[in-house]
Predict the 3D structure of the following.
Amino acid sequence: MTVGQISSAQGGTDTAKAADRPAAANRPRISMNARRQRAFYMFTSPWIIGFLLLTIAPMAYALWLSFTTFDGISPHWRYVGLDNYRELLSDSVTWDALGRTGLFAITSVPLSIIGGLGLAVLVNRPLKARGLFRTLLYLPAVVPPVGAGIAFKQLFDTNSGATNGALNIFGFDALGWLADPYARYVLLMVVLWGAGNIMIISLAGLQDVPRELHEAARIDGASAWRTFRSITVPLLSPVLLFQTVTGVIASVQTIMPLLLSADATTAGVTAIPQSNYQYMMHVFAQYFAVGRYGYASALLWVLFVLILVATGLIFRFSSGVVFYNVDPEAKK
Amino acid sequence: MPSHAGAPPSRRRFLALSAGGAVAGAAALSGCAMQVSSGVSGSGETVTLMINPDDLTPELIKQAQKDLGVKIRTVKYDITKLIAMLTNGNPPDLVRGIGAVDAAYFAARDVAEELDPYFARSSILRLDDLDPVNDLWRYDGRTQGKGPRYGMAKDFSQDSMYWYNTALFDKTGVDYPSETEPVTYEEWLDNAERLVQRKNGQTTVFGGSYNGLGKAILLTSLTAAAGGNLFTDDFSQVDFSSPEARKALGWYIDYCRVRVGPSIIDPDPNTWDGPTYQANRMAMSNCGYWLGGLINTAPKLAEVSRLAPAPVFEGGPRISTCQGGTGLWMPRKARNKDAAWRVFEWFFGEAPAKARASGGWGIPTLKSLRSLMPAQEEHQKQVLKVQEAELKHFSVASFTPYAKWEGLESIFNQIAPAAMRGDMSVDTLARRLNSAMNEQLKRGKEQVG
């Protein structure tokens, strides 16, 4: 390539650059704020699409099913309006299951929060091998629920379980732990056994409590209990509120009774001891054992509304007792 | 206001786009989901079987693919998956089912294909070679056992018979049951009470287990054994208050109440009798001939195991029902019906059928395969002798097409434990079962039309 050619080529490039300039200048400038918004939507869109596809769409489908007699098989189903909801109101099995579920929630949620908080307080102290204790106490929380169910079934089996073996050693007769009336206690034990999750969250909350406040209280002569009640608990109250809300939601949707049942099949699940026949078990049975997809969908929608109401009530009644370190109204 | 090129979408627009994307994604997923039986160019068609993993070995499948020129894909049997596939319009080509309780249910809902034209031209599954048990898969729109065939049983047993462990009988000094004359149900329970072994509130050896293949079909069979019918003639109602059904129900509640074997109030963690019987912890097990498949694999257990005729009720007829007749049916919307039929013939008449027959896992459903039933060992000869004599009393207890058996069982499981614990009389239980089950049957009849 000669010097002249190079010069000509360069001149051409310059000409092209010059021609591009006005186009680039005409392009609308994207503000930083707009860029941020675009990035926000790009990053959140997978979740939003997933939410629409895997949550909203099935919920809408279930809502539609709840107005029909669809049984999953027959093409002869029909639209029945609110009949399934009307039937639900007079179905004693549904109400009994709902009552048991409510009782389970108001028993298991406070017990697991108190238990988890108690463990957190213990492992927050300057103990030797504190890390080991924390690991051991948290370990049950990472056991998959199916594994926990199998382990508890083996442990509490009437004829070969270790629990009855221990009772026999102390001269007591074996008990039918996995049948009524004891099955509810085994269920509660499984839930409390997994309180490590609550312990970890409470522990994080405890470590956020300013040390100076405790020291000031000690100098003022406050007892340990008084310090815990008047300083630790109020500062932990947002964490406790979170645990209460998530705990209630999880407890009313628990499928642990299924995992504790002797026969976790479509028909077997209906043989769960009455005391553990909770709302979700009833939903499962109506869907898959009875084949009433319409009615079971109505049951699920009612549960969804009840959970919304319960959550709202918890927030409403907690507003006077939950202490926020940062004023939640500040940004309004 | 027109939006600027390059400007971020408004929140509303973004949500609308996301919803559009979700709908498009759903449509795409729906198109991709459960693609079954698509033609495979150059290597035959694909047939999807929804079965249990132990229904077919991988070696048999490989051999069949080679012999039939059909690609076989298996999907584990799962009722929720089946419903999803049926709803989606892409059902498996062949589905596992229990003839006694599923055949009429699916046929009445128009989802099962009539197989009579296929049987008519088959040289492998000849109508004159079919055992009468296959009539469980017939339904004429009203009654099971008549009308077109919708499936076929892979093997069967007379499920009211029972196995017993002679070593445990010897230990407690209880006489062995006769090989030819049935005991009464009352005697069976009496024997179970003598055979049960307990220590510190724990049952170390169950006297006997009597739970049938499911409570709904068990109670249907027991009522038939008492000389009656659990269902009304049109199968639209149950009647537990009839003397025969009341007798059957009372006996089963007594069985649970005396706690000689597993029940809802005394669950066996093994969920079925096999492992417990195999561990010499069960003196009598209400399993039919098919349990021999398991027993034959343990020579020591086989030596002390005997099969006994189905019990009878005092004054009742001598019948011996089949409560299962598990096999395959073809969904009406199956894509590759002809290829599926080739697999059907192979499954019921060729290598898999021969393997099942010679393994002792049930009586073959083709008469021509009976000669393959195991009879080499002494105990096998005894079992075969008792079984052959029992076939004279073979019977079928027809089941309603208007409810799923699991649905009726769920009602029983919810109401009956109170009676088993003695907190409710059998008459009250019968009334409550009538009320709850008849409501479910009424809904089913309305659905089927």
Summary: Chain A touches chain B through 57 residues (CB under 8 Å). Residues 31-55 of chain A form one domain. The CA atoms of residues 245 and 314 of chain A lie 7 Å apart.
